[in-house]
Design brief:
By secondary structure, this protein is of the alpha/beta class. Helix content is about 40%, strand content about 25%. Strands 1, 2, 3, 4, 5, 6, 7 and 8 form an eight-stranded mixed β-sheet that branches. β4, α5 and β5 form a beta-alpha-beta unit. α2 runs parallel beside α3 and α5 runs parallel beside α8. It starts with a helix and ends with a strand. The structure holds S-adenosylmethionine. The site of S-adenosylmethionine has 22 residues, from α2, α3 and β2. Pfam families: Methyltransf_11.
Length: about 200
């Protein structure tokens, strides 16, 4: 059984992402006009958050899976030409270095096999001062043996400290006032700034 798929595509997940995570990221100061939403999913959640709450005027929404790309295109149609959806891998983003003001990555890194390479790629595409707005689950949830029975994620996921260390190493500053750790380090939200 893959409970991950049921949850990821659910209306409940979408509402939490939009109302709780989007609002938190906005409160933490996430903002930027030219934006990538990496791992947009079937509902195009991060792209909608970026346009409605984070000041984005031009969003390229990306997903590895073609079916998600097509579903997201339909889901985001009301946002018109502010959003373009295309297939791409988080570890090889189809934009130039330093071209983006904002990267939105909602529950994507914990699905990417080489998540550290994706973090380096996020740093590459952001201009100095540009922001990464993230929401993540950590290995404290994902590597739980009961959770693994009903969900599917790559092995070897990150702890809170490992994610923060990787962000710092890739060229991001993550001030404590812009990072939230919830449910005992299981659910992370934050805004990292490209140095
Ligand atoms: C848990 S879903 C999150 C979807 C949405 N961002 C949200 O928060 O509801 C993770 C998404 O990342 C995508 N994904 C996984 N690996 C990826 C990769 N290497 N590059 C781009 N997208 C990827 C999956 O297809 C999926 O749509």
């Amino acid at each position: 059984m893959d409970g991950t798929r049921l949850w990821v595509d659910s209306r409940a997940r979408y509402e939490i992402g939009l109302r709780e995570e989007g609002a938190t990221l906005a409160r933490l100061g996430a903002h930027g006009q030219r934006c990538l939403d990496v791992g947009t999913g079937r509902r195009g959640l991060g792209a909608r958050v970026a346009v409605t709450a984070l000041g984005a005027t031009e969003v390229l929404a990306l997903d590895l899976h073609q079916a998600s790309v097509e579903a997201a295109r339909r889901a985001l149609a009301d946002l018109g030409d502010r959003v373009v959806v295309q297939r791409a891998d988080a570890t090889a983003l189809p934009v130039g270095a330093g071209t983006q003001d904002l990267v939105v990555s909602l529950h994507t890194l914990h699905h990417v096999v080489d998540w550290r390479a994706a973090v380096v790629e996020y740093a590459r595409v952001l201009r100095p001062g540009g922001q990464l707005a993230y929401a993540e689950l950590t290995s404290r949830v994902l590597d739980d043996r009961w959770f693994r029975l009903v969900s599917r994620h790559p092995a070897d996921r990150f702890t809170e400290d490992e994610l923060l260390e990787c962000l710092e190493g890739a060229g991001f500053d993550v001030p404590a006032r812009r990072h939230r750790s919830r449910v005992g380090g299981r659910w992370l939200l934050g805004v990292a700034t490209r140095r």
